[in-house]
Write a structure and sequence with these properties.
The structure holds two protein chains of two kinds. By secondary structure, chain A is of the alpha+beta class. Chain A has five helices and eleven strands. In chain A, a hairpin with a 2-residue loop joins strand 1 and strand 2. Chain A is globular and about 35 Å long. By secondary structure, chain B is mainly α. In chain B, helix 4 packs across helix 6. The radius of gyration of chain B is 21 Å and the shape is globular. Chain B is built from 14 helices and no strands. Classes of the chains: A alpha+beta, B mainly alpha. Chains A and B meet through strand 8 and strand 9 of A and helix 8 and helix 13 of B.
Chain lengths: ~150, ~240
């Protein structure tokens, strides 16, 4: 797992830097989508996460969930168009999972992309992801990631 | 020209400042907000913000009356969000309303999408979201340690056991935690129509694109359920 200013980035994931989300591809063509460690740090203590309903079609750049923390509210944007085939009920019931385990237990939706090849051009991994997030943090004047609920991956 | 030697924002084109200045002066409320100022200072003496910030409601009345466009722009960026909008300043013997002038200036700053307005309103994102999506402003679940650190250590316990604390107060509140009280679907529907028809929803787009996105989707879903098309509101008005 790569680390940048106390922010963790699992090697096997793809990232969209501007949307601050990660993508995990599944064998069946679907993919999991969630918030990065940077996103959960910026939000602070997350108190609500409301994923969109299963069956909804979402366009690239639009929201798949609304996340509300003590001091912020905003959308979780998807870089890929597609149908939401599953939503994580666990994060709906206990949104602090997003702070604690943004990459494993904290997946937000499972998406069946309409056109993966076309929509995935802005996804990055490895060194590209780290340098992209480094620039992102500098732009947002962000010092380091904070794990207010601990970090379980 | 600004009356101040150390005037800021002199790199911003005068025409841009003048446009915003004229927007405020053309506001239908403006003529009832400024009648002339003889600098008695009663507004400043009554102003709670003046006690804590480098802020003076009198300056707003003076600058608008003098038509000092450069200083107007400086106030628009650096001071306009320091006002607590309590209207204590309306005890002016000339019946000026500096708080009202400031409200019109805030409207202009938001419409123009000024960075200073975005910065000032960022901390209020949840409040904007709650007001516009539910009609209730401050909700019990806003009591969070990182949002109200000034409440001290107790706020952590309150936040963690909010539903218990809510059950301890009278039943008229319906023991809600995510809202100050239960809001009916009909109320929300009316509210969304008001935000849409008055242009307030579009106003948010220039300030916070993320909130705009989620508000539009929430509204669209409820309006859809009731057979209304959010993009076809002019027809609803005619009906």
């Amino acid at each position: 797992m790569a680390e940048l200013k106390n922010c963790m980035f699992p090697d096997e994931l793809l990232y969209h830097v501007a949307f601050n989300v990660w993508i995990r591809k599944n064998d069946d063509g679907t993919l999991y989508l969630g918030m990065t460690d940077i996103a959960q740090s910026m939000a602070g203590n997350i108190i609500h996460c409301r994923p969109k309903k299963v069956g909804r079609n979402v366009k690239a750049g639009k929201s798949v969930a609304t996340v509300e923390s003590g001091k912020w509210v905003g959308p979780v944007k998807t870089p890929l168009s597609g149908e939401i085939v599953a939503a994580n009920n666990d994060v709906e019931n206990d949104a602090t999972i997003l702070n604690r385990s943004p990459y494993n237990q904290g997946w937000i939706v499972r998406l069946l992309p309409n056109s993966y090849d076309e929509d995935s051009t802005e996804l990055v991994s490895g060194e590209d992801a780290i340098s992209g997030f480094d620039a992102y943090m500098a732009e947002k004047d962000m010092g380091e990631c904070v794990h207010c609920e601990g970090f379980e991956g | 020209m600004s009356i101040y030697k150390d005037a800021k924002y002199m790199d911003v084109p005068y025409e841009e400042k003048l446009k915003l200045f004229n927007e405020v002066k053309e506001d239908m409320r403006y003529d009832y907000s400024l009648y002339g100022c003889y600098e008695c200072g009663i507004c400043v003496a009554a102003c709670p913000s003046a006690r804590f910030y480098d802020f003076s409601p009198r300056v707003f009345a003076q600058i608008m009356a003098r038509e000092d466009v450069d200083t107007f722009y400086e106030l628009l960026n650096d001071n306009v969000w320091d006002c607590s909008q309590c209207y204590s300043c309306t005890r002016c013997p000339r019946q000026n309303n500096p708080g009202g002038i400031i409200l019109m200036m805030r409207d202009a700053a938001v419409r123009a999408g000024l960075q200073s307005a975005k910065d000032a309103l960022r901390a209020y994102s949840r409040i904007i979201y709650k007001v516009m999506s539910t009609g209730t402003q401050v909700t019990p679940d806003m009591l969070q340690p990182d949002f109200f650190p000034d409440w001290g250590t107790d706020v952590k316990e309150v936040a963690e056991n909010l539903d218990v604390w809510r059950r301890a107060i009278p039943p008229e509140t319906l023991h809600t935690t995510e809202l100050a009280w239960d809001v009916s679907e009909k109320t929300r529907l009316e509210l969304y129509m008001i935000w849409k028809l008055t242009g307030n929803l579009e106003l948010i787009e220039g300030i916070d694109e993320g909130i705009y996105m989620i508000l539009e989707e929430i509204m669209e879903e409820l309006l859809d359920d009731h057979g209304y098309d959010i993009d076809d509101f002019e027809n609803i008005l005619e009906e």
